[in-house]
Amino acid sequence: MKSQQPYDAIIIGGGLAGLTCGLALSGDYLSIPLKTLIVDAGPELASRNTTADARGSAITKSSRTMLQTLGVWDAVAEQAQAFEKIIVTDGKNDADNRPALLSFLEAGEAGSASAWMVENATLLSALIGKVQQTEQISFMGNTAIDTFDFSASPARVTTTDGRTFSAPLIIAADGRNSRARQAAGIDTVRWDYDQSGIAMTVEHELPHHGRAEEHFREAGPFAILPLSGNRSSIVWTEQSKDAERLMQLPEPEFLDEFKQRFGSHLGEVKLASDHAAWPLSVQIARTFIGQRLALIGDAAHVIHPIAGLGFNLGLRDIAALSDCLGDHVRRGLDPGGQSCLKAYEEWRRADTIMVAAACDGLNRLFSNAALPVATLRQAGLKLVDRLPPLKAFFMDQAAGIAGKQPRLLRGEPD
After folding, report:
1. Cα–Cα distance list, 260 to 7, 218, 239, 254, 269 (Å)
2. pLDDT of the chain along its 414 residues, tens only?
3. Those residues with Cβ within 8 angstroms of residue 399's Cβ, 6 or more apart along the chain or in another chain
4. 9-53+120-189+281-368+404-410 maps to which CATH number?
5. How far apart are CA 283 and CA 173, in angstroms?
6. 3-class SS string, the chain
7. Are 224 and 202 in contact (CB under 8 A)?
8. How far apart are CA 227 and CA 119, in angstroms?
9. How far apart are CA 406 and CA 409, in angstroms?
10. Which of 128, 161, 330, 341 is a good FRET partner for 212, with 20 to 30 A between their CA atoms?
């Protein structure tokens, strides 16, 4: 069948990463916006259920700058909760007796926070609204891809209903089980933890005052992340068998178990969303590129949620890819050519591996109950707490402002 009108890029996947990528390539930011098609097997944007995801995302300072530059942040700002204080505990004690071993107090000035919590539903609604206003983006929902042809020039995708679309570049934003990555024959390095993450939103009686808490328990980290109002986003790690048991409990019993980990410092607490669980693993693609293919977000990398950096890593991918594509298009070069793709991979792969290794190491260190490890861990946290330069280093890493930054993350014009 004859290929339909060609595009400059085709993005496979219309979730948070795919929609953000569309705006980074086709919105007002690039001096030469690309004509982009986003293809997703889920519903059309107008009928998308934005409340289905019970999770929240910690948006770092540089990620917020990127969302501001893309014209998205204003739509979420009222629902974004700044981190006013971050505390870290060694959660071997009961929930109401966990002294803070490490704390980060924000300066309190406008824009000084290292991160903001935003519910994924709020982010998704804002991205959908902006994409719908962007003329250079076409969105095609309820559409599954049957075949990929990366060897063609331009590359082609054929849908299950027989339509064919072409572009110099295919961008895989279709998640950890990416069909585009598999079709390109790109393997992954993966290891599974015997842990599952449980995510939900809760309401509590007392205000959190913007305090984020990370309690490192033997079973895994338990994070209480402040949302707007008297609400918090919970990322609760348990051993897989225990998580399975918890998810099968009636809601009152599940809530009782939750309160034992949560504590009473915020008063009475109740569930404000459904709770969902998923197995935790690390997965990194052996290469982030193929012939006329770039991987972004979970299609390229999945990391442990211990530091809340997963979505931010995806935004770094998108910002770097936007830089590389913008530079090549301005010079009249092929946006799907190997020089562009290699520049993207060189930029992103080392940073991704470093962050993934750091999160893996933290999880292994803090999920170890052996007395020598626990003693060393506590001493290390107390040392960092007493050394301002070390604390500043960790805050820069958490804010996403360390290392070489693409223009989008700096808020600079293309």
Report:
1. 54, 15, 16, 10, 11
2. 445 668 999 999 999 999 999 999 998 888 899 999 999 999 999 999 888 787 899 998 899 999 999 999 999 999 999 999 888 887 666 777 777 766 666 544 444 677 899 999 999 999 999 999 999 999 999 999 999 999 998 999 999 999 999 999 999 999 999 999 999 999 999 989 899 999 999 999 999 999 999 888 888 889 999 999 999 999 999 999 999 999 999 999 999 999 999 999 999 999 999 999 999 999 999 999 999 999 999 999 998 887 678 899 999 999 999 999 999 999 999 999 999 999 999 999 988 888 888 777 666 666 545 444 455 545 555 554 554 544 454 555 554 555 678 999 999 888
3. 60, 61, 62, 114, 115
4. 3.50.50.60
5. 15
6. CCCCCCCCEEEECCCHHHHHHHHHHHCCCCCCCCCEEEECCCCCHHHCCCCCCCCEEEEEHHHHHHHHHCCCHHHCHHHCEECCEEEEEECCCCCCCCCEEEEEECCCCCCCCCEEEEEHHHHHHHHHHHHHCCCCEEEECCCCEEEEECCCCCEEEEECCCCEEEECEEEECCCCCCHHHHHCCCCEEEEEEEEEEEEEEEEECCCCCCEEEEEEECCEEEEEEEECCCEEEEEEEEEHHHHHHHHCCCHHHHHHHHHHHHCCCCCCEEECCCCEEEEEEEEEECCCEECCEEECHHHCEECCHHHCCHHHHHHHHHHHHHHHHHHHHHCCCCCCCHHHHHHHHHHHHHHHHHHHHHHHHHHHHHCCCCHHHHHHHHHHHHHHHHCHHHHHHHHHHHHCCCCCCCHHHHCCCC
7. no
8. 8
9. 6
10. 128
Tell me which amino acid residue 357 is.
A
Residues in a beta bridge with 283: 190, 302
